[in-house]
Design brief:
Layout (H helix, E strand, L loop, with lengths): L5 H7 L10 E12 L4 E11 L4 E10 L11 E5 L2 E5 L4 H13 L2 E2 L3 E5 L11 E3 L7 E5 L3 E5 L2 E2 L5 H11 L8 E7 L2 E8 L5 E2 H14 L13 H21 L3 E4 H18 L7 H11 L4 E4 L11 E4 L2 E4 L10 H4 L6 H21 L5 H27 L6 H25 L5 H11 L1
Antiparallel strand pairs: 1-2, 2-3, 3-5, 3-11, 4-5, 6-7, 7-12, 8-9, 9-10, 10-13, 12-13, 14-17, 15-16, 17-18
The structure holds adenosine-5'-diphosphate and ligand LMANGFYV.
């Protein structure tokens, strides 16, 4: 018997990846507890979708004897007359998590809080939940650490933990150092890492740069004060370094290009099932994928897997990349597979296209002339930053013809994925990747 309140709570939560799909809660288990006042029950809730897919979601819930006025916004339901709250929103509950890391020992119910050496945690830091868009749930501990609790959980390693660990141990300056993680059996449920105090995210900076450009109708991207190209170039350099470190830390192999082309074509077919508007661009996209089939063997390695400007943070010590979990909709087994580094380059390329079009969508143009002018500036901004990024990513070798074919296919594949993502999560934004696909294959 499962609690009635779970399904509506999960369904309305930002982190729920199954939006738009019918599901029922088919099981739940308390796999651990943290603290005692309140007591946090860490529940794994099994969801079964109408098409038979099954997923497990992690719900840390704090249980109190009485209603807590200050947690009204976080009330999830009531069990046996006791109020149950979303523990991520609950400072006291999160303080207990931090203390558990401080002890570095196993906590009741099989949860293990594992610490890496090298950082003295501030155990008194105040917890505050991250308020932005995300697929998991993060809590900041003062200016010291960030705890990310994974929502969709699967057995085995979580690539966010293992990739951060490898990069931290390799001394990378382009990630927030990993401080520890939470395990339950063979699952990794959360990750504690360095709080990047001086960070501002690349997406926000890119939007500001575009707004600057749109405000100066007669100027080109390189002429306005908020030009982003030198940052785009730094991002390219940083990504090249991260890819090099990942090649050294994880196994590398080769993938037959024909297999990659087929996988991309299948992803397109599946996406058309959800976003029928993609069908009119299908022939063009298939031709782009087919061109990859002749490329022989593609070198593959551990990559980020879902890179975009929102996963980049500019700090006084340079650019950092976050969230190495891969695309949230992909099964873990696929997210762990080595892939071509061009997937990450393609993700950034798409993001350089998204930023100007997202700004344009949020600023209705007064007339057709302004709209036309903005479309030209948007294309200019995207091209300028894409070029700066690519030039420094590729370095002296530049981009060869085979690389270009592969990159183009990854860019189209990413734009197709984005159509699916937007249709399910932000239908108002669907036109951004859809028009992107049209431009790419048109
Ligand atoms: N170490 C960090 N320090 C400061 N802010 C961070 C850190 N890691 C992530 N963030 C912020 O939190 C946001 C969400 O983190 P992310 O890892 O992308 O979560 P999710 O996997 O849920 O999408 C990021 O976009 C970034 O703005
Ligand atoms: O950050 P997540 O791992 O949750 O990634 C998912 O959500 C992203 C949006 O938050 C989505 O990114 C898309 O929108 C971005 C602007 O919000 C844009 O910069 C990206 O280029 C675009 O792909 C991402 O695809 C999705 O997996």
């Amino acid at each position: 018997m499962t609690d009635q309140f779970l399904a509506p709570f999960i369904g309305r939560s930002r982190w729920f990846g199954g939006k738009g799909r019918d599901f029922t809660v088919t099981g739940e288990e308390v796999v651990g507890t943290v603290g005692d006042a309140p007591r946090v029950e860490v529940r794994l809730v099994e969801l079964t979708y109408a098409d038979g897919d099954v997923e497990l979601y992690q719900l840390p819930l704090s249980v109190y004897d009485d209603l807590q006025d200050h947690l009204e916004h976080a009330l999830v339901g009531e069990r046996d007359g006791r109020p149950v709250y979303d523990a991520v929103q609950d400072r006291q509950a999160m303080a207990a998590y931090l203390r558990a890391f401080g002890d570095g020992t196993a906590v009741e119910g099989g949860l293990r809080f594992v610490r890496l050496e090298g950082h003295e945690l501030d155990l008194e830091a105040t917890a505050s939940p991250f308020g932005g868009e995300q697929s998991n749930s993060s809590v900041f501990f003062g200016e010291d650490a960030v705890l990310k609790l994974f929502r969709k959980v699967t057995p085995g390693e979580n690539p966010d933990v293992t990739t951060h660990r490898a990069l931290t141990e390799a001394g990378s300056t382009h990630v927030a150092a990993l401080y520890g993680w939470i395990e339950q059996g063979d699952r990794q449920l959360g990750m504690l890492q360095q709080f990047l105090r001086t960070a501002s995210d690349g997406w926000g900076q890119a939007l500001a740069s575009v707004r600057d450009l749109f405000a100066e109708a007669d100027l080109h991207a390189e002429e306005v004060g908020g030009d982003f190209a030198s940052e785009a170039a730094r991002l390219g350099e940083a990504l090249a370094e991260v890819h090099r470190q990942l090649r050294e830390s994880f196994p590398t192999s080769a993938l037959p290009a024909s297999v990659l082309a087929e996988v991309m074509a299948q992803r397109l077919d599946a996406a058309i099932g959800v976003v029928p508007q993609l069908a009119e661009h299908a022939d063009g996209a298939r031709a782009v994928f087919a061109a990859v089939a002749g490329l022989g063997e593609i070198p593959v390695q551990r990559v980020h897997g879902d890179l975009h400007l929102g996963q980049t943070l500019r700090t006084v010590a340079g650019w950092k990349f976050v969230d190495f979990e891969g695309e949230p909709a992909k099964p873990l087994s696929e997210r762990l597979l080595p892939d071509s580094p061009w997937r990450d380059v393609a993700g950034m390329t798409r993001s350089f296209d998204y930023a100007p079009h997202a700004v344009a969508a949020s600023m209705p143009a007064e007339d057709a002339d302004v709209e036309h002018q903005r479309a030209i500036r948007a294309a200019e901004w995207a091209k300028r930053n894409r070029r700066a990024f690519l030039a420094s990513y590729c370095g002296e070798g530049g981009l060869g013809p085979a690389d270009r074919t592969l990159l183009t296919a990854y860019v189209v594949d990413k734009a197709v994925y984005e159509c699916l993502y937007e249709a399910r999560n932000r239908p108002n934004w669907l036109s951004i990747p859809l028009e992107g696909v049209a431009r790419l294959v048109g």
